[in-house]
Write a structure and sequence with these properties.
Shape: globular
Number of helices: 10
Largest sheet: none
Number of strands: 0
Distance between the termini: 23 Å
Radius of gyration: 17 Å
Structural class: mainly alpha
Low-confidence stretches: none
Helix content: over 70%
Number of domains: 1
Length: 251
């Protein structure tokens, strides 16, 4: 395929990936294959993709904040356990098999998909839900730590785990949960990107193109998220969970 055409495909994949990652997750399933079609080895494609994760997360976070959908008081309590888990996950990556956490993720996400379909209130809070208290709040913090642990280790699909902890346990509605999810993603993605830059595993021209495209997709995702009913967002998350699980099982 012609290189110019591949870059056009990369732009389209980037816009779609930014939209999906802002709404739910799984956007890297679109961007990573295109980066590899450009001739990048898997490790370089993975590193190159991280710049777009930083830019789309930051753009989406700021857009949610402008629309008054970011709970700034929750930033430190939400981000801290996630980052601590991500640090431990990155350290553990050298000694634990990634396949182990992959199976754990698949099991968690498939369970989440089933519960979301049968008992939607268990994993997605309505806009008027009261804040989590007591044991539920502790469980939410533990869930964020676990999501950070997985994100520091592997990254792919971590958005679904963050949404499960933020909406299902801490009882944020999906719009505010997505805003806080992007806060978490942007912070530990910066650290991950730094690692790949130091290792020389970032191809900057496609990284810059993909980053710009995902910002566009992220901003479109925010506008969509704040205008549609919660039920629509729930089905988008459900579809993303199922698609990610199927893709992982068929790889």
């Amino acid at each position: 395929m012609d290189a110019a055409l591949l870059y056009l495909v990369l732009v389209a994949a980037g816009v779609a990936a930014g939209f999906l990652n802002t709404m739910a997750g799984g956007g890297s399933m679109l961007s990573l294959p295109v980066l590899m079609l450009l001739g990048l080895p898997a490790d370089v494609a993975n590193g190159t993709n991280r710049l777009s994760i930083v830019t789309q997360s930051t753009a989406g976070l700021l857009a949610f904040r402008r629309h008054g959908k970011l709970d700034e008081r929750a930033l430190v309590p939400v981000v801290l356990p996630t980052v601590l888990g991500a640090i431990l996950g990155a350290i553990s990556a050298a000694s634990l098999p990634p396949a182990l956490l992959e199976y754990m993720l698949l099991g968690t996400m498939m369970t989440m998909a089933v519960v979301m379909a049968v008992f939607p209130g268990a994993v997605t809070a309505p806009p008027d839900a009261p804040p989590a208290e007591g044991k539920r709040r502790l469980a939410g913090r533990a869930g964020l730590f676990a999501a950070g642990l997985y994100g520091g280790f592997i990254q792919a699909g971590v958005g679904f785990l963050l949404l499960g902890a933020l909406s299902g346990l801490l009882r944020y509605d999906l719009v505010r949960a997505n805003a806080l999810k992007l806060a978490c993603s942007s912070i530990f993605s910066v650290a991950a990107l730094a690692v790949f830059v130091i290792a020389g595993q970032v191809a900057w021209p496609p990284a810059a193109v993909l980053a710009a495209a995902t910002v566009v997709g992220s901003l479109l995702g925010v506008r969509f998220a704040i205008r549609v009913p919660q039920a629509v967002l729930r089905y988008i998350v459900l579809a993303g969970v199922i698609a990610t699980c199927v893709a992982a099982l068929l790889k």
